[in-house]
Amino acid sequence: MGKTKGPDPPCFQKYGVPFFGAAFVPYKDVRSKLSNLQEDHRDSSTDENFDDKSAALTDTTDDGNYVVLAGGGGEGHSGIPNSILLASFDFDSNSLSAQPVAKLGLGSDCPYRMVVHPGGDDKVLNPLEDIVQQLALAFNAEGSILAVGGEDGNLRVFNWPGMEVLLHEAQAHSSVKDLSFSPDGKFLISLGRGGPGRVWDVSSSMVVASLPKENDEVFAFCRFSQRNDGHHVLYTAVVKGQRGFIVSWNTTSWKRMSSKQVVRDPISSFNVSSDGKLLSV
Description:
The chain is mainly beta. The protein folds into two domains: about 15-35 and about 60-110, no CATH class; about 135-280, YVTN repeat-like/Quinoprotein amine dehydrogenase (Methylamine Dehydrogenase, Chain H), CATH 2.130.10.10. The chain has one helix at about 25-45, and strands at about 20-25, 65-70, 85-90, 95, 100-105, 135-140, 145-150, 155-160, 165-170, 175-180, 185-190, 195-200, 205-210, 220-225, 230-240, 245-250, 255-265, 270, 280. The strands form five sheets. Strands 1, 2, 3, 4 and 5 form a five-stranded antiparallel sheet that branches. A four-stranded antiparallel sheet has the order 6-7-8-9, with no helix packed on it. Strand 3 and strand 4 form a beta hairpin.
């Protein structure tokens, strides 16, 4: 007889939407935004994209931990709504909320990529409106620099919010898949569709190291975080065959330290909290 699959752990939830982006957000950074959304909703009876469940968040003083998830069915007629979801995470029980605690519908606009500004700023990025689809976005820890990477291989780095160009590399990769700044803002990691990852020195705009792949690995995502001893560490989500792995890298030598399988499927979105305590795939 075959093995019976056990119940899913409490940190695993299905919300009925394929996700393309995930990010951890402290409660204090989202409360004011949700309050504004609630007020706008009260002022407009025709707003069908706002979910009243977000109102419950504005009435509590809990300093919770939240995960923002973005995805949907795309521009077609799949019937799957495009939306941004907010789920709560409880440290004590290591569990995600069974249902999203807030939801924002996006109509036909599918959030293929998402980045959360450290200070909660929002801005329409006019310099990116007339270029190809951007597959990667990242802020530095201070929220003063934004890096974006396109499917055409262009890597652009802007100051924020002025959007003056600090770096424009037209052939960073064949196609840029993901970006991540080091916590001190000195380095920017870029991953491409093929070839090794690259480590950029932000001040000089030069590549200072490469992150080589092994065997049939495919780099998917990259995120900086920290270990229990306080030292910085770089994590890359890697796909081997149809399985998802997390590879950790030393941020001084840029050598890989370990590799561990975390899921039996390819990883479609990935993030690590800044304190290194939470990992989301």
